[in-house]
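ok so I'm stuck.
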Amino acid sequence: MKRLCFFLLLSAFACKEVSFKEPQPKDVRSLSQVPSKLYGNYLFTDDKGNPDTIVISKKGFYAKGDPKDLYAINDTLVMKSYRDHYFISKNEDPEWLLRVIRQEKNGDISYMSMEYGDDFNGFLQRLTLDVRVDSSEVKGKKLYQIDPSPKELMELMNKGYFKHVLLKKVK
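replied:
not stuck anymore, here's the structure
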């Protein structure tokens, strides 16, 4: 039940979303482990309104309600650091899905994912004003991908294309 709960919190991967051609930000070195300043327990509410705790450790992260379901940093779950943000890219061949976290001064984590609300087509139209969006069909599924530079990616975040959710650090 808790399977993928962190990424469900971070928007359901099964849903239609804009993806990337490679781990983000491109041309930035991947981290081999999670930075120690992020280690800890963080409260969140799952998509059904149930509270749980995300545990972040050196190897990756998992929901306390399902500790055997570890999301480990590896070749298919890539973490990068750029301008005080941590970018987590998950390989869903042939696309990469992106979530971004930033640690707040009080230790909480601000989690970000691309937000399109109920109007995916309107979101795509707005997005094409700021970055090229390629579309293709793979295995009967329509893919929408972008390939921004690191600077363009930060501009998309600053322009409100990413929704913020706060994960409270458990002291």
